[in-house]
Design a protein that fits this description.
single chain; 338 residues; alpha/beta; 3 domains; six-stranded parallel β-sheet; 43% helix; transcription
Amino acid sequence: MSKKVTTIKDIAERLSISIATVSRALRGSSDIKRETKLAVMEMAKEMDYHPNLLASSLSSKKSKILGVVVPTINRQFWSNSISGIENVAYDKGYKVMIFQSAESFQKEVEIVETLANSRVDGILLALSKETNTYNHIQSIMNRGIPVLLFERVCSEINSSKVITDDFNGSKEVVQHLIDRGKRKIAYLSGPMSLGVCEDRLNGFKEAHKDNDLHFDQNLILEISDFTFEAAENALIKLWEMEDKPDALFCFADILAIGALKASKKLGIRVPEDLAIAGFGNDDICRFVTPSLTTMSQPSFEMGQLAANLILEEINSEDEEHQPHHRTIKPVLVIREST
């Protein structure tokens, strides 16, 4: 049998005061006597009263809640970004609702609609790898709900965006490998449906062009799943080639660590036979053997910046708020693997 939910009407009846007085007392209104406030608060605690946030948001037109949608929360980049968002949001009186799309377009669509119907004040979204149409995002923006895209973005939506400088970050990693004397550099890419994957591949190509190096398409392997196993299989495939690579740049650290594991199975010396570099700078990069050279993304700071930008839009009095685009520069961290 379900317990009856206590309402402000129940508190008002117990104290023989008006519902409006109870409501104002719970909000801490200055026009309510201190004794009345204390009596209301004590009665609310005694009766186990909890405010109806949806009803409050309907009356105030603000829920003070942000929705966050990421592909997964078990990767350090995404969890750090969420921490940065929550850090700023909480400090400014907002709560955060977190969802993961599990790289599913359909799930992303359903989550975005759920958040919109829950009357969140804004949504911060990183696109799934399957997302290539954006009507679900444009639809909620047309309903007046601010959306900010971060890390995984698209050009089709005119919203605020926060991204990493993936092109130049990738280019710098490859230049580092070239400076180490490497000339046959392979690349493990994520799915090219993601703009971030395309940007990093273009940076890879540009570094080859700048150094007058031959670009071998056979050394580019696209991986659809961000897993250790997928990277292991990819390296095995590369090492079966007659003309083997002498360096490997991986789209993400999880792929680079999978490649390191495979290199041990295959008896490949790192970095003597094969230099390996990643992108992201997850904490584990310092502790694997050999420690991993990688491009460090300030993911916590990216989350903070994203939260500040969307809160600025939410609280802006301008009807035609202009979207902001911010690009964060990653930093190369050189370790033993190169």
